[in-house]
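User: structure tokens for this one?
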Amino acid sequence: MKRRLPTTNDKSNRGEGPLRKNLVYCLLGVVILLVILLMSGTTVSVPNNERVHTVTDVGQSNVNEMVQKIVDEKLMDMMLEFKEDQRKAADLSSRFPVKKIFAKDRKRILVTGGAGFVGSHLVDVLMMQGHEVTVLDNLYTGRRKNIEHWINHPNFNFIVHDVVDPIQLQVDQIYHLACPASPPHYQHNPIKTIKTSVVGTTNMLELAARVGARILLTSTSEVYGDPIEHPQKETYNGNVNPIGPRACYDEGKRAAETLMYAFETQSKVEVRVARIFNTFGPRMHPNDGRVVSNFIIQSLQDEDLTIYGSGKQTRSFQYVSDLVNGLVKLMEGDYTQPVNLGNPDEYSIGDFAEKIIKLVKETEHDTKSSIIKLAGTKDDPNKRQPDISVAWNELHWKPVVDVETGLKDTIAYFKKELEEEGRTEPIKPQELRGN
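Assistant:
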């Protein structure tokens, strides 16, 4: 029997399809009851002792025709809806084929932040592997549409919940991704951001300790701050401003890593830590203020691409499928120390902006965008490039999707988003405080 994980506010598991079917069944029940009463030919009394007409008075054949028409229409609607559900299920199965595995091999996996950009792609992979997956997300930056294709699947649960509040579940693994990751989002409420990293991580670690689950924390390359070492190795302790505008995120993740290894030592929790470098791909929020999303949206809307600073600062970009592959390898492997997951290909921001414009033009959108430079942002790193020797040596992992191929997929995704959702307003210069 399918286990139902406890929740008090899980509305997302009640899909609209079953609700509509239940309403149709209720309506048919009322119609059938009406037919029985009419066919009985009985008389019903009312307060004024007036006689209610029976089927004999109004003509039984007319009533039968009316009822039959209603029933036929409802049955046709149900048949059409059933065929549409079958079509959607077939489409889902072709795009996200779920592997059938024995119960002894099936893990109960919790993904916090699973409705977000990276989290939803991770959920797809875990579901297709045949595991039971529970998503925990407060939908602050995550979007229900990212995971709606799994709602009502017997192996999937979605709980709207904030990790700052404790929760009791039975799980075998925890992928802890919950935390706003783009500067405009995490700087909007810095207190909430650091509480998510510290209190939320503590709650997940306590859950892991209680049920004996292995837990993976998605940390960040931001723990290196504005690095003096280049490229950055996991042994580098970083150059972080603890009171700057990015500190709520940078120091929050550093504290989260400290908590992970404190629980490993004291409570014997199995921990994994991934330090993620810039990642892009479909399902990025179109207005999250990151370099890739801002440049693509601006170019598709014929707006100038905004660079903060000289444009000579560098970043390394990896496609989301590569990152997810690395996260799964890290979780399933035996290596317990922090691991850089990123693409060593390094781009200056100026060159990257020109590449975006070029690729958008190749989609037959003759963008009129140019590049403008604005004042730099406080504590913005000048260099960012991962050393992935540990990932290769310990996990046999390296990125396989080249940046240009990934950008083409991402541009196509954003193009469709704009067609469906309409024009969006990219983060304005005064609102953006770092990349």
